Amino acid sequence: MFAQKNAIVRLLQDDDPETVRMVKESLALRGEEILGDLRDLASVDNARVSRHIQDVLEEITSHGADEDFSLLCHFFQNDNDLERACWMLANALEPNIDTRPYETRINNWGRQFLVRISGIVSNRQRVQALAEFMAGELCFRGNTDQYYCERNSLLPCVIDSRMGIPITLTILYRMVGARAGMKVEGINLPGHFIARHGEVYFDPFHRGRILTKADCEEILARQNLKLRPSHLEPATPRQILLRVLANLLYVYDLQEATDKHARTDAWIKALARER
Q: What residues does the Protein SirB1 N-terminal domain cover (predicted)?
């Protein structure tokens, strides 16, 4: 515990905002080496002091998670773990989120779904079973009311609300399917991210609806584009992560969230650079 605990408590109760700011900055600069002491200090019986210490804890945790994700973007390869990258992104943008319970929930869903598809041999039937489980039983659906929202791109938030955008819902279908031995691939269709299992294309944003080639052509026709074979190729983990970040960048641009916009832009540049 801090030898100067009592002095820190007194200073954080000071009526001078500048004094409080300097103490908090000094503590934050010491970083992760004092996390344990700070957590102890946050439990003091003084709401004002506890609130200030929580601010410091959040700043330290956020900085560490930001650095970790930035490093991942610089060295991310197509054989890297997309799921881990998504959890790290959530930690970088929302440092108070503990992703471990969400990972446990995904594992449990995967085990439940494995029972559902036992004995199913058809790709189409497996897709239908996955859609029934994810959209029917778990109620995941597209967020049509608040499409351009940060929470739609962060997996823990999508799991909480059961609403997301096409790419994050596809990632969740992919994660649950993988735990049941079902390979779900993301398809980077311009304007609307979709999924594929074997030869079957489907749309997690619209409750796992199975798509024909004509459906895909119609999606592109709305953008005055013609469907090409390359449009239906599976997206790599790096392409998927880039599109998640591009969605966030657009949201932060709309919201004029300059700090998060700058951080996300830096991550995109690191991830997109030639390997």
A: 106-245
Name the domain count of the chain.
Answer: 2
Residues 178 and 131 in one domain: yes
Q: Same structural domain for residues 176 and 59? A: no
State both tokens at 42. Answer: 């946050």
- Burial code of 238-250, b = ≥16 C-beta within 10 A, e = fewer? bbbbbbbbebbbe
Q: What is the pLDDT of residues 129-163, one digit of tens each?
A: 999 999 999 999 999 999 999 999 999 999 999 99
Domain boundary among 75, 110, 129: 75
* Alpha carbons 242 and 268: distance in angstroms, whole number: 6
Single residue among 40, 60, 75 that ends a domain in this structure? 75
Residue with tokens 């832009």: 265
Helices 123-131 and 166-179, interaxial angle, to 10°?
A: 110
Two tokens, residue 76: 């991310």
Going by pLDDT thresholds of 50, 70 and 90, the confidence category of residue 4 is confident
Same domain for 248 and 226, yes or no, is yes
Residue 35 pLDDT class (50, 70, 90 cuts): low
Contact between 72 and 88 under an 8 Å Cβ cutoff? The reply is yes
Give yes or no: residues 53 and 141 share one domain: no
Structural domain for 233, as ranges: 82-272
Give the type of residue at 95.
P
Whether 68 and 173 share a structural domain: no
- Per-residue pLDDT of 39-83, as tens digits, reads 777 777 788 878 877 776 676 666 678 888 999 999 998 777 999
